[in-house]
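Worked example 2:
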Amino acid sequence: MKETLKNATLYQDIEAVIKRLNRKIVGWRNYYGISPTRILMKLDKYILTRLVIWYNRKRQERKRYKFIELSLMFKDLGLKRIAFTS
């Protein structure tokens, strides 16, 4: 996770980053599948928060109020979730 969203990857396209994240998310979903939903939701929130921070660094923005807009954009781009199948 940290390797995928570090500063050295800021030049990469968002679709490529989401594709790599989806592979990790599917693996985590298979591994943690029987965990309580609240724990899986915390993992989802962590992934989304890190992705928003990465995207804002990429765009050189510091606006935190765009969290909901960006999360909807990432969902439209195909970002998977651990807690609920998407």
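Residues 37-59 form the longest helix (23 residues). The chain has one domain: 7-76.
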